[in-house]
Amino acid sequence: MRTSTILSFPLMAILLLGCNDEVKSQPTQEKQATETKTVTDQLKASDNIMIEKPQISQPKGIVMRQGTVRYINLEGGFWGIINDDGSHLLPQNLAKEYRKDGLRLSYKAQEIKDMMTIQQWGILSNLSDVKVIGQVESQNSDPRI
């Protein structure tokens, strides 16, 4: 009986080591399957990135707007733009051909933050890409304007 017990311990150890190797190999196979899935997901994600159209954004601080040019008879008079959303814009560089009360414009505006004016009206801005989009009735009684 004692001999069988002595022989059974090495046999049990061999069996346990064999099972242990099998248990260790399973996580490796699972790990390989997970890594394969991760690589596949990354490839799919990279394919989606290539298919999507690139986003085109305006440079920071430049806003596309539409508004109506108005002559403001205040503090000596000046030209301003009343935007479609109701906000006021004080253009620093409004060209003479656009200085007509009631003229509708489409433009890009960039706010000027490091300058002040005596007109306390609207947001001081530089205009670019100015286009005439229409005309509305003038609100000014002066026929020269």
Keywords summarizing the entry:
single chain; 145 residues; alpha+beta; five-stranded mixed beta barrel; 1 helix; 34% helix; rod-shaped
The end-to-end span amounts to 122 Å
Structural class: alpha+beta
Helix count? 1
Low-confidence stretches: 21-25
Shape: rod-shaped
Q: Topology as H/E string?
A: HEEEEE
Number of strands: 5
Strand order of the largest sheet: 1-2-3-5-4
Largest sheet: 5 strands, mixed, barrel
Strand content: 25-35%
Q: What is the radius of gyration computed over CA atoms, rounded to a whole number of angstroms?
A: 38 Å
The pLDDT mean sits at 75
Query: Percent range for helical residues?
Result: 25-40%
Secondary-structure blueprint:
Elements: H1 2-51, E1 62-72, E2 78-83, E3 88-91, E4 103-111, E5 123-135
Parallel strand pairs: 3-5
Antiparallel strand pairs: 1-2, 1-4, 2-3, 4-5
Walkthrough of the structure:
With 145 residues, the protein is of the alpha+beta class. The chain is 34% helix and 30% strand. The protein is built from 1 helix and 5 strands. Strands 1-2-3-5-4 form a 5-stranded mixed β-barrel. The chain is rod-shaped. The termini are far apart. The model is unreliable at 21-25 (pLDDT under 50).
Short structural summary:
With 145 residues, the chain is an alpha+beta fold. It is 34% helix and 30% strand.
